Amino acid sequence: MPFTSLGLSPALLKALVDQNFNLPTPIQQTAIPAILNKKDVLGIAKTGSGKTASYVLPILMNLQQTLGAKNRHANVLVLVPTRELAEQVKNVFQSFSQALPEKVKTLAVYGGVSINPQMMAIQGVNVLVATPGRLLELVDSNAVHLSAIETLVLDEADKMLNLGFKEEVNKILALLPAKRQNILLSATLNEDLQHIHQILLHDPVVIKIEDEEESLDLINQIAYIVSDEKKGPFLRYLINHHQMKQVLVFASSVKQAEVIVNKLRKNNIDAKAIHSKKSQGNRTDSLQHFKSGKLRVLVATDLMARGIDVSFLPFVINYELPRSPKDYIHRIGRTGRADTPGDAISLVSQNELHHFEVIQKKMGKKVEIIDSENMP
Ligand code: ADP
Ligand code: MG
Prior knowledge:
This protein is α/β, with parallel strands linked by helices. Helices cover 40% and strands 17% of the residues.
């Protein structure tokens, strides 16, 4: 099914061609018409399968109809878990809305940077992409009113409804008009659907794109048994042996991320850390350098696990396993995106082996495990 049969305007179709979006992905084929029809949508599709455009395109279409009438307040609210994802989603809105006859103003608001410029910029915004904490601050200071929101998107919905965000998100929900369109998306949204229906969705269109056998293999997973003391040298061996030019390494804590970066640097491997203790300016620079290919190794906490799209990222390494099997799925999903294969390598100590079994079971997939002691 081509993009032309989904009900999108000629201007958007042209923008799609310009961005080399030749065919809609499965989630896009189903979600775009449903969202155009103002339905509530619960969309579940694997990492890297184009969920962002599946809501951005129809939302922009629907906005074209309401934009003529003067809007004093934002019509669309997208909630995301991290600042970096807020920027990324804003950029997707902007890249497609450039092509449209009616101007759409999109703004990303998030913490860690000063609030004043965001307050100034918020006037006349149509689409607000936000992390929950900063949005509530802006509400409290009367800089934004959520009474005109017609469409709410929870990207990484399971994360947004999970403990860490639940309270803030509930506060925000209470400020929104009861009659609105709700769109929830994630790669891992399989638990508690009942609950989600009750609080958020009215007669939703539920879209679950099952993995096809071959698409599974877009992410080549492999694990090595490595003792904790040997993980440092083994990481360097992997980077050198595979001549990795761009690799995202996940660590399980801020401290560990710093330790890994320092060791890599001592061994003349260009690396930077990204985590919650870095300044936002530093975070933005590191991610930008990494995305543009200037930085070889980015060592991250789970801050980078959700949603972040680095085009054609070839390698993800788990220096340690994440506690949650869901986080494992999101971490490795930073590679193998948009039909381009990639490698996800996990360094697993003897102590972590049992947990890795649990992860594989939850994921529904077996991963080849090699004992590094038996390697030359
Ligand atoms: P998800 O949110 O499902 O993890 P994204 O929306 O971040 O995935 O999209 C992953 C990548 O695929 C992005 O780089 C995006 O530009 C690209 N992409 C999305 N849809 C298409 C398409 N129809 N054709 C080509 N590339 C696409
Ligand atoms: Mg996404």
